[in-house]
Amino acid sequence: MKNVFIWACLLFSISASAQKISAAKVPNVVTTAFTKLFPGINDAKWELEKGTYEANFSKAGLKSAATFNKAGNLIETEHDITIDKLPAEARSYVDRNLKGKKIKSASIIELASGVTNYEANVGNTDYLFDGTGKFLRTKKD
Fold first, then answer.
1. pTM, whole model, 2 decimals?
2. CATH classification (class only), 19-140
3. pLDDT in tens, 107-141
4. Could you read off the pLDDT of 42-95 as tens digits, one per residue?
5. Is the alpha carbon torsion for 121, 125, 131, 132 positive or negative?
6. What are the sequence ranges of the domains in the chain?
7. How far apart are CA 75 and CA 56, in angstroms?
8. Cα separations (Å) of 43 from 79, 111, 137?
């Protein structure tokens, strides 16, 4: 019985993660919205996760992502940035609270509502900060 429970948990975790899908399986309303916001990007890689569609692509040499709901409304965009572009308070938080650990990568997250957040990847954990660099929460990669 214990093994059945473990396998069920494993299958659930696999099915709950993002699934890579072909552009042909993305609703037309979503691809139209993406093309309008990001003209000239023709090589986006798509994922479906929890009912949202995420386009992963490169823009100006940096990795970017745009997430849409099934109606084609933009939820958020995320763009890689250099670590020095993180707010000073976010970098200080890592120095104070994660002694000896280094930020591996950073990104800016712009919500459709106009809110800007930042993400710092340290180890296998993403640390989320608000637009001023105040710590919000963590999430595992």
1. 0.82
2. alpha beta
3. 999 999 999 999 999 999 999 999 999 999 998 86
4. 999 999 999 999 999 998 888 999 999 999 999 999 999 999 999 999 999 999
5. negative
6. 19-140
7. 14
8. 16, 23, 32
